[in-house]
Amino acid sequence: MGKNPKFITPEKDSRKYRVKKKRSKMEKIEHKMVAVNGINMHVAELGQGPTILFLHGFPELWYSWRHQIVYLAEHGYRAVAPDLRGYGDTTGAPLNDPSKFSIFHHVGDLVALIEAIAPNEDNVFVVGRDWGAAIAWHLCLFRPDKVKALVNLSVQFPRRNPQMNTVERGKAFYGEDYYICRFQVPGDIEAEFAPIGAKSILKKILTYRYPGPLYFPKGKGLEAIPDAPIALSSWLSEEELDYYASKFEQTGFTGGVNYYRALPINWELTAPWKGAQVKVPTTFVVGEFDLVYHMPGVKEYIHNGEFKKDVPLLEEVVVLEGAAHFFNQERPDEINKHIYDFIQKF
Q1: If you classify domain 11-344 with CATH, what class do you get?
Q2: pLDDT of 322 above 80
Q3: How would you write the chain as a 3-class SS string?
Q4: What span, in angstroms and rounded, lies between the C-alpha atoms of 88 and 90?
Q5: CA 327, 188, 192 angle in degrees (round to 5)?
Q6: Mean pLDDT, residues 273-292
Q7: pLDDT tens-digit readout, 250-279
């Protein structure tokens, strides 16, 4: 840990075999709606045993965890993955009001969900990635009693900067075209996305591998985002991309973008937790080419001891060599093993 992170080398690609084998198993995943915190949350689940709650990021769905759901269910766990507020088949969140997408709403959704789906368990395992990881960190801050152990991917603990919020910081480093800044004006990025189509947008974002900042220059659509080499994006089949696209064609992107629009209010409302620690057993995994890992100060924070100060029960930091932002889908076998090996301790 600390200055000597573990680097994991890529395994031989076995996606074709994996997809063929798991298609029938995917069909066994059960789907249901759960009323939580004023919304109706769509939940996918499979397996029997201790509950593992999987939290997806942007622009994703429960489906992002398809490989993990099947694997953990086969290994004695109950894998549960919701479409988070504003995504997929989850309904009821007012899309025209970004303030209803604050971190407190998300944590409130999860507390209610845990109590609804696991009433006989004192706490559950939580696995988060990207926005799901950010929500998981705050779930552990606000309600550590609900979390048995945490596996977080991509996004490190979001230590609060008392001087400026995330949007202001992004603008200071990268300018107005930085994706977080472009997402702030309601309706703006949606209007730019509309003529492009959900499938093209999702393919570009999900296969993004450049470790530098993501830009959406006004009026240029997706031109600023380079195409991923075919060999490096082979983990996302046409069938899988079509599933994502079908859901975002129905919902649009406003729900997911609202998470970014709520960043300023999150900064204001989380002031009482400045300096608070996450005291839940944790392991953290990030991709070598993950754009979050390359944001200013992140590597230093993760590897120079500050991360451990904020998360004193952090057991390990793993850097996946050659992996990019969506590595739970790009490198599922390795992530499955990291999750399983860690939660087996509890």
Answers
A1: alpha beta
A2: yes
A3: CCCCCEEECCCCCCHHHHHHHHHHHHCCCEEEEEEECCEEEEEEEECCCCEEEEECCCCCCHHHHHHHHHHHHHCCCEEEEECCCCCCCCECCCCCCHHHHCHHHHHHHHHHHHHHHCCCCCCEEEEEECHHHHHHHHHHHHCHHHEEEEEEECCCCCCCCCCCCHHHHHHHHHCCCEHHHHCCCCCHHHHHHCCCCHHHHHHHHHCCCCCCCCECCCCCCCCCCCCCCHHHCCCCCHHHHHHHHHHHHHHCCHHHHHHHHCHHHHHHHCHHHCCCCCCCCEEEEEECCCCCCCCCCHHHHHHCCHHHHHCCCEEEEEEECCCCCCHHHHCHHHHHHHHHHHHCCC
A4: 6
A5: 70
A6: 97
A7: 999 999 999 999 999 999 999 999 999 999
Lowest mean pLDDT among 68-77, 129-138, 215-224: 215-224
* pLDDT confidence of residue 220: 83
Q: Any idea which residue has 């937790």 for tokens? A: 273
**What pLDDT does 1 receive?**
45
**132 alpha-carbon distance from chain centroid:** 4
Cβ neighbours around 167 below 10 Å, total: 18
The pLDDT assigned to 19 comes to 53
Domain-wise residue ranges, the chain = 11-344
**Positions marked catalytic:** 130, 260, 325
* Residue appearing with tokens 């994703």: 60
Q: Identify residue 25 by its one-letter amino acid code.
A: K
| pLDDT at residue 164 in the model | 93
